[in-house]
Amino acid sequence: MKKNKRLGLPALRISLALLILFFALQVHTLSLFPAESLSPDRLHEIVGRKITEILRQFHYNHQKINNSLSSEFLDLYLDRLDPSRLYFLASDIEEFENYRFLLDDSLKAGNVGPAYFMFNRFKTRVEERIEYALEQLQHEFDFTADDYYQIDRRDENWPKTADQLNRLWHKRLKHEALNLKLAGKEWQEIQENLTKRYTNFENRINQYNSEDVFKYYMNALSEIYDPHTAYFSPITAENFGIDMSLSFEGIGAQLTTEDEFTKVVRILPGGPAERSEELAPNDKIIGVGQGKDGEIVDVIGMRLDDVVQKIRGPKGSVVRLEVIPATSRPGSPPEIISLVRDEIILEERAAKSQTVELTDNGSDYKLGVITIPSFYADLDAQRQGEKNYRRTTTDVRKLLAELKQDGIDGLLIDLRRNGGGSLQEAIDLTGLFIEKGPVVQVKESRGAVSIKRDTDPDIVYDGPLAVLVSRRSASASEIFAAAIQDYGRGIVLGGQTFGKGTVQNLLNLNRFPSLRRAKVGQMKITIAMFYRITGGTTQHRGVHPDITFPSIYQARDFGESSQEHALPFNTIEPTSFQPHDRVSKYLSTLRFESKKRIAKNQEFQYIKEDIELYKERDEQNLVTLNEAKRRAEHEENKARQLARVNERRKARGLEPLEKGDEIPDEDKAPDVLLEESQLVLADLIELSESGSAAHLTKTDSERRKNSKKSTETVDIDN
To answer: Cα–Cα 20 to 30 A to 115, which of 14, 97, 145, 483?
Structure first.
């Protein structure tokens, strides 16, 4: 006889109470949408429920949809709406606390109403703040008082009263007005600029539609899982080639919106931005001008799509960007960067080589340098069955043949700006330098581990090898550098790499039966993680060089580990492989010699000074609103830069520049990281030939004597 399973009376009462509370909250939420407010569509309930299921089932870490996630979700959504705590009042946040442990149940039930209730409140607060800002801009500010503005308020409490908000906003407006004044603008221009800025921001918020809010909400949810998981709305999915990466054609960069700023995420290989070397990740674009003399239009508070449209333009035309560099001090004036719009063509992304001749410790060396901007492959040609389609490994193989014919003594591979690309190319490229064997391990979300191998026993280049990396080296470039390091095949130099060791897949939501007839978007979801053959993942920690050079990129503010929800480092079992061990017995000597050179090199001392200034800037959360003090700080920075330039000119026997003179390109900082890498490689060659450190005895000046670079660049033929 079957037993009748029933809930006990206490449990039944609790379940009924929770059910009543949930539906009461749902009715309360939906009833608070005035006619002019945004509200969810019926389709959003279905899509939201499906996204929740996908994240729970398919994401690599299988995070549960529970009260803990609900609490984090609420904090993250509010932080994305108001990261600087400049719009919401504490009373708003207290009201939103009703959702803290109910958003998980709402997601499972398909109720996304809380997103719209909170966004509509945010919209109201924005209107109030803009009204106050426009009123304050009717009168010129006094910049003689000793007052300060707090740059970062992410860890502060939300203001309790409108008066507290007003005081914060008065300082914010004064700070922005002073920035414009220091840029040479008069009060009338400042007033017009800021009025337009805040009017644009209000218009941007008012232009949000129901789909925009839903996307914002779902992306706050997906970000809890990891920074690379995201929901793409239908319009974003349709423009996948541009919008998925938030990239824009014309200068070659990836953008996103942070607070009211347009921020650079990544510089794309082969584009004008990379070639200029003036734009960098985390830089903020605050203005865009057309042509060499066109007016710079303020884009703070503007929708990303609108900023993109201003930057796009005909090939060969000039666009000028007003930029706040990521490494600049708070309150520093913006810089103007001029770029010529161009297509990103494969030839510009392709690997290139050059030869370098130097004298090291009394011996002459010829070094080959191969720069690889990305791990590329012509997938269309591959799919069409072409045998000799363009790809990284084929190109580098040709370059190696040419360099070997030139009689190089050692090879340096420069991956400093390589953001990744094809995994297979990273594996195949590794195979040019090792006998066949494992290169990387991939662990899928269900726990299965596969080993990706180089199956070609041929070694194309067997000589001394160095790999130069930086914090901008990511993904596939980290796999290559890690494999070279783990095999002991070459020495890895530079800075800690980015630390992206995860794999994403694109999932079309129309594949699910309940959504086949609807116009819905896509999910980019993390499904696997890369691991080194020694067992540790490249995720979060990246690759640590054998010899580290000073670098302005700090791990905490750039790279995977700077992301709040980045998946952590972990390990699996190592796989069996046969190391080459070409480096370990020389490593202590190589480090010692490099450290001596760096200590004597004035350019490295400049880098160390910049690092200390950057750390000081990072810790300094207050900026003066006193015009005289701010100008004095700017003049001090300019004087320091001019002094460096004149030190370089003096070393070359040139007359010093005067204040205000334009700095020629040849007086800008040399690539000392590349130069030092070449000297380390020369040391490795000498040690490999002698088998000891006995020959590394001459002075640094003798070792640099007659050092020279060739200007010839060898391009790959199609």
So the answer is: 14
